[in-house]
């Protein structure tokens, strides 16, 4: 009975996607154990909330949201062992990427995806 209960609890958890936290405080990348197709829709929703009033464009391997003030790009690539690697880049209009802001956005996206994939 206990083994059956444990299996019934663990099996649904294994179907959910998991996203590892960024490696350190300034990391702009993290990995998830779901397919890239399952990540596109939640990433678009996150970017719509993050970049208010912006346009969202999805291309091969990336989703970009931009408005007059900033551009936020999420690069989605396949990593080793079938994991999907996401890298976030935040840049003000016509400027170089901001490392601290990109790291904050990566942590926020990772937390958002953990909730969205459950």
- Strands, count: 5
Show unreliable segments.
3-15
Helix and strand sequence: HEHEEEEH
**What radius of gyration results from the CA coordinates?**
16 Å
What is the number of helices?
A: 3
Distance between the termini: 26 Å
Taken as a percent bin, the fraction of beta residues is 25-35%
The structural class is alpha+beta
Shape: globular
Largest sheet: 5 strands, antiparallel
Q: What is the topology, as strand order, of the major beta sheet? A: 1-5-4-3-2
| Secondary structure: helix percent | 25-40%
The average pLDDT value, as a whole number, equals 85
* Integer tally of domains: 1
Describe the overall structure.
The protein is of the alpha+beta class. It has one domain (22-77, 84-117). The protein contains 3 helices and 5 strands, in the order H-E-H-E-E-E-E-H. It has helices at 2-15, 36-50, 99-116, and strands spanning 29-32, 55-59, 62-66, 70-78, 84-92. Strands 1-5-4-3-2 form a 5-stranded antiparallel β-sheet. Helix 2 (36-50) crosses helix 3. The longest helix is centred in the last third of the chain and has 18 residues, at 99-116. It is globular. Residues 3-15 have low confidence and may be disordered.
